[in-house]
Design brief:
With 123 residues, this protein is an alpha+beta fold. It has 4 helices and 6 strands. It has a domain of 84 residues: PDZ domain (Pdz3 Domain, Roll), CATH 2.30.42.10. A hairpin with a 2-residue loop joins strand 4 and strand 5. The N and C termini lie far apart (30 Å). The C terminus is likely disordered.
Amino acid sequence: MGTGDFICISMTGGAPWGFRLQGGKEQKQPLQVAKIRNQSKASGSGLCEGDEVVSINGNPCADLTYPEVIKLMESITDSLQMLIKRRVDTPFLFPEDQSHPPLLHLLGYTSQLTVTLASQLMD
């Protein structure tokens, strides 16, 4: 996927999480977030379409097939923690349950990016 930022995403409360994955070892593609459902746990967590999934609850995903990933996801009962890699050119959208942008600073984005994104969202 090239250069990017590593971000930890956490969700609680069990499935449904509200996102769909694609890729996997058998497809010779990185595991990526294909779709995020509106008003879901995933949309409120800061997860973005196109994010590469590095690990799920501490389990590395690089050598997992898609069926193995599905089996892993189905075994998660309450708390989901994902390490994701986000391309530097992927726009960040504020999580639905956030009323202000400080989350961007927690994720390592600069204040200039915050201003740029905020002005794009207001246009």
